[in-house]
Amino acid sequence: MSKLQDRTVLITGGGSGIGRQMAQAFAARGATVVIWDIDLEAARAVTKDLESSSGGVHHAFRVDVSDRAMVARTAEEVRSSVGDVDVVVNNAGIVAGNRPLTETSEEEIERTFAVNTLSLFWVTKAFLGDMVARNSGHVVTIASASGLLGVSRMVEYASSKHAAVGFDESLRMELAEVAPGVRTTVVNPFFIDTGMFEGVRSRVPFLLPILAEAEVAKAVVVAVERNRSVVNLPRLVGLLAPMRILPVKAFDAAIGLLGVNDTMKTFHGRAPRPEPVDAD
Fold it and tell me: Which of 19, 42, 63, 89 is the most exposed, fewest CB within 10 Å of its CB?
């Protein structure tokens, strides 16, 4: 029996893309899934599919994870209507687009950090106290390979994901002291074939393939089941840290050979998600 059987898993940004795939994978392991998404109709569509395919009762909520008041309010609603949350998957994320920093607006930069970085604090804090009290739980942070190195034409995104990697590592160290039964996982994937990064291309797909959503979702579920602290996809991403021993010029040249800074040149992304509607 999976350790996820009868556990409650909350996934932010679960209404589409890898979030939807993770919801399906967790539900297939017997978990009750709670979907948080800025698009309530998309979230409800996912829970309806889960109930048809995997059985059980699953739950959908409209949440803008960058709004800390809404996060806190909805977390209380989850506690009262669903119960304790055993696994939190911080998946919600956005990217401004294929532009240099000088052409990226202040509003886009602030929104990127609000969703990709600050939301990690608001969502995790909303449930972490209960996990620490039980000395049981798991926090997953979907970061990015761009959280391990800088990437041209996505300065705001890569910077927000660097912060996400630091968030997970610091939280892991803290929990080891105060609640070792609460575990964390950070996931650092190369580009995934979601609409979010529509149009990106890899120069060396045999080394850095564009990842399939289902492949990443499966890796996340396995990591939670096996308490893996770090998931790098593909494996080459795990070599970025030891490559830092190289002089800066040599490191930059190696990254250049892999074509990382060319990946965004063909990016066009998907249409923007709807803005949140005041639940009140």
Answer: 42
